[in-house]
Amino acid sequence: MKTKLQQWAKPLLASALLALLPLASHAADPVKIGFLVKQAEEPWFQDEWKYAEQAAKDKGFTLVKIGIPNGEKMMAAIDNLAAQKAQGFVICAPDVKLGAAVARAAKRHDLKVISVDDQLVDGAGKPIAGIPHMGISGYEIGKQVGLGLLEEIKKRGWNLNEVGALRVAFDQLPTGRERTMGAIDALKAAGLPAANVIDAPQAKTDTENAFNAANIAFTKNPKFKHWVAMGMNDEAVLGAVRAGEGRGIRKDELIAIGIGGSQTALNEFTKPAPTAFFGTVLISPKRHGYETAANMYSWITTNQAPPAVTLTSGTLMTRQNQTELRKQMGL
Ligand code: FCA
Questions:
Q1: Pairing between strand 277-282 and 315-318?
Q2: What are the pocket residues of ligand 1 if the criterion is a CB atom closer than 6 Å to any ligand atom?
Q3: What global pTM score does this model have?
Q4: Angle between helices 174-189 and 138-156 (to 10 degrees)
């Protein structure tokens, strides 16, 4: 009887142990986390990577940074991470509508996903449940842009009826639309006529495309005596500033406030002569880079998922307070 039991129990035990092996070796794998960004050349994303690296150093994991300028590169990057035995990734996708594709690929490879900056959506435009997100509170930060513009308009004694509001727009990205609409709503609430809002849609979210969009808008609207400009980030607003300069609309006729506060803004602030790039709402690449990566690490190692949505705030930064403010924010 005993021998019989041993006879069938042995292989059973062996196969049970074998089945456990991949699990055990998986748990012992060193932690590897991907950080995928849509525009690796943009200073904001460089900064995010820098702070994610800091998290990697502090926690002791490997960070794999990949630029994903389009959907094809994005899918290849996710496959590549799986092949390298990563356990998860943080992503700012080139198009938020790729959300379902990201979720599917992650599931197929058993990878955890956190989105950063741009929240992934499904085919119906709804945020994808199960992908925690950290972004900026776009509408609020946009309002801060608008209030900053208004304060400077007041200082200069401009009549709002004579002010054109150039909105460098990238409305297919929800956070982009929220940011610029927040600014416009603040201006309108203070009395800017709706007809003074001039939309300049940019084809891509970089300075060159913003420049082209703004250039057309300035040319088509010579009637305004003064201008303000806003956009989804510093690159968009810088495009408007450069386009203005090309048309003789300089700092005395144009007040521009961006969003970001990374190197793009700092370059403007450290020029010996001020430009129309009056300010920016400083947001935190440290929180977005460090915290998302550290949250992913906790999720992988302790199975503790981060909150579904975290929205970060910003502070108006100008030439005057840039050094102090960046120091305060630990940048
Ligand atoms: C978006 C923009 C970036 C940055 C980030 C917080 O992804 O493209 O420039 O503003 O949100």
A1: antiparallel
A2: 42, 44, 92, 117-118, 136, 175, 205, 233, 259-260
A3: 0.91
A4: 40
The best mutation among 49, 117, 282 to test binding of ligand 1, ranked by most ligand atoms within 8 Å of the C-beta, falls on 117
CA dist 249 and 247 (Å) reads 6
Reported as a pLDDT band with limits 50, 70 and 90, residue 9 is low
Instruction: Name the band, by pLDDT with cuts 50, 70 and 90, for residue 16.
Output: low
CA-to-CA distance for 114 and 253, rounded, in angstroms? Answer: 42
Under 8 Å between Cβ of 303 and 296? no
Distances in Å between the alpha carbon of 114 and those of 135, 254, 286?
11, 39, 16
Ligand 1 centre from 264 Cα, in Å?
13
* Residue with more model confidence, 129 or 109: 109
Count Cβ atoms below 10 Å from residue 208 Cβ, excluding itself. Answer: 13
42 C-alpha to ligand 1 centroid (Å): 9
Closest-lying ligand 1 atom to the alpha carbon of residue 259: 10
